[in-house]
Amino acid sequence: MESPVRQALEDLERLLLHVEWTLLGFAETPLAAGSSMAVAAGAVRFHYVVSGTVEVGGCALPVRLTPGDFLMLPRSGAHRVTAVEDAVVASGELTATSASGQPFALALPDSLGACGFVVREPHMGPLIQTLGIEFGRMRTGNCVMASRIATIIASAAVRSWVENGCAPDQWLVSVRDPHIARAVAAMREAPGEQWTVERLARVASASRTVFAERFRELVGDSPNRYLTAVRMEHAARLLRDGRLSVADVAARLGYSSDVAFSRAFRRHTGESPAMWRRATADASALSA
């Protein structure tokens, strides 16, 4: 039986045939240890570490990159790249220009990291260097050439990300079936809604039976069990944050009472929300 990742790669290959990127900017920046560069919000940003080690902060979670790592930020807010040691970073800005590129970019996560990118894709290092040379040349067609090269690099980064098993289920589903992906996205964006299979089927523009079967086939679980898992992910973040009471977390996630929420949380983690929160706080204190 074909693995989900292999199936996703085959579907991704068909999709990438129609995705094109335009390179809006490119620069290779040397950074001394301790120095940093501020990067303004943009379309799709990327950073490739030529040498040294850097930390990228202010976008999703802080990310540390070492030589050969590639970070793509499909919805880039303002962020900062700081050198842990002397480093050279190649950075660029892209925008999707093909008809299928915009929804493809929206389906990508906020931060897409391809660690050891040049190990898995050894020909990408020279291509990134060529990208800088081509983008800076004053020749006819240089922008077109640079954008074609950038499309190859971005496509390879996404492929490496999927092959490494880093792609979340929502994104893998979006590649295979955008209708089911809408239902997955709806649950993730509003886990506290009173979702039923019927409501989710309407979001996916499908009948209840077809939706339930297709959802299980693609996601590997029933809609109700998947919704519970999503709620528990959110619950863990809210409990770890510590600003809401257990009752408030329960209400925010759509449970009729904190008792019902506690029962579901215990089934999922083996501990009550209060015990889990205390254990997490103690572990954080020890780590600090």
A few lines on this structure:
The chain has 288 residues and is of the alpha+beta class. Helix content is 52%, strand content 18%.
Mean pLDDT: 84
Contiguous runs where pLDDT drops below 50 for at least 5 residues:
none
Classify the secondary structure makeup into a structural class: alpha+beta
Q: How does the major sheet shape up? A: 5 strands, antiparallel
Shape: globular
Number of strands: 9
Biggest sheet strand order reads: 1-8-3-6-9
**What share of the residues does DSSP label as strand, in percent?**
15-25%
Number of H- or I-type helical stretches:
13
Run of helices and strands: HEEEEEEEEHEHHHHHHHHHHH
Polypeptide structure, described:
Helix 4 runs antiparallel to helix 5 and helix 6 packs antiparallel against helix 7. The chain is 52% helix and 18% strand. The protein has a 5-stranded antiparallel sheet with strand order 1-8-3-6-9. The chain has helices at 4-16, 101-107, 117-120, 124-136, 142-163, 169-176, 178-189, 197-203, 208-219, 223-241, 246-252, 258-269, 273-287; strands at residues 21-31, 36-39, 44-51, 54-57, 63-65, 70-73, 79-83, 87-96, 112-114. By secondary structure, it is α+β, with helices and mostly antiparallel strands. It starts with a helix and ends with a helix. The mean pLDDT is 84. It is globular, with a radius of gyration of 22 Å. It contains 13 helices and 9 strands.
